[in-house]
Amino acid sequence: MLGFSCRVFVLSVLLASTSGLAQDRRHVSEPGLPVSVCVTLTSSAQSKDDTQRLQDSINHCQPGAAVRLIAGAAGTGFVSGPLIMKSGVTLWLDRDAVLAATTNPLAYDNDGRCGTLDHKGNGCRPLILFNGTRGGGIVGEGIIDGQGGQPMIGHNETWWQLARRAQTEGSKQNIPRLIQIDHAHDITFYKVTLRNAPNFHMAMNAVQGATFWGVRIDTPAGARNTDGIDPGASQDVTIAHSFIRTGDDNVAIKAGSAGATRYISLIDNHFYWGHGLSIGSETVGGVSDVLVQGLTLDGTTSGLRIKSDASRGGLVSNVSFEHVCLRNNRRPIDFDTHYDAKAQGSKIPVFRDIVLRDVTGASGDLVMRGYDDTHQLSIMLDGVRFAPDAHWKIEFTEIQTGPGGVRPALLGKSQSAEVYAGCVGSWVTFPGS
């Protein structure tokens, strides 16, 4: 164990559930498809660049209506550079419709750096931008393909190869995100598939109200920095009934200097390869009121993860993980206040009021690591069951238990009456696999 410094409190009764508060404050139900369409566009083999007609259609569409994309002849699709969404306008991709991101770095360029490495990064615009919008979103059973694995026009490598080279050379890559949502309100994503993003699939900053329902995110495990959905400095966000496999965090809830992230719900989702469900690593703005309920993590490197360090830490509190199934994870539980062991600074991360209830996993390392004796990690375990060969690694952590107990046993704690059974019947194959 990691210098075991664990304070144990066995409770005879379960503490009051925090999940009544730790969630999206809106009443969220399954969205529907638009009832009003302002224009319908059909893909064509003759069109090599659809950016202008797509942007013109968005610009002329009235709030409350949709730009509808439908598939033409087999093998055709829409090819586009950056698009800017308009308040109240929805992009509707019919089944079999494909919107492919151009692989030309010049199309995304901000200042001559897109498609290059340097020490700045952020040299590219995203494929789709929501900036200061209210309402609207992207819906339908079609596909947005970032083409991250295709060679860049004018280059001899792909976006993903550029990202990997940045890692080996200690540089920063200038690569476009697939979708960026900034300072927006009440955005909806429904049933759409996002795949092969060059960088993050969905990045959010200062968003008030967002719903992701039935979304599929599908990108290879080796594609660097291809996070699935990243809420940052945002409030009232629900991610539900979605399927995510990607090359980095499946979901990463962040709070940097732009402000707090809180009132987040993740309900009945399925994660596959990726780095797991993460909070952090930026937590300086504070993350709170998070409810995770009904989640499977099948093959993620980490499972339930909270990560930060002294260079970017803050308070993470009131987080509930309920009815979670894990398997094939290196670190099914990975709560670490020393994410970067070399980090220095005074922004000490504090994780408290964390609840794990009915969490079942297989083998692997179960890490709970507070910062120091003054900044303990505070957690409650209730019905937490792992395989007998799972290993607890605990440091500077105060643990409480509910009546469901915990397995494998911890020092001074009663075991769960239930043994590890592997969550039989909970596993779902990625749709279309």
UniProtKB/TrEMBL annotation:
InterPro entries: GH28_Enzymes, Glyco_hydro_28, Pectin_lyas_fold, Pectin_lyase_fold/virulence. Keywords: Glycosidase, Hydrolase, Signal. It holds the Pfam family Glyco_hydro_28. Residues 1-22 form the signal peptide. The keyword Signal applies. Belongs to the glycosyl hydrolase 28 family. This is Endo-polygalacturonase.
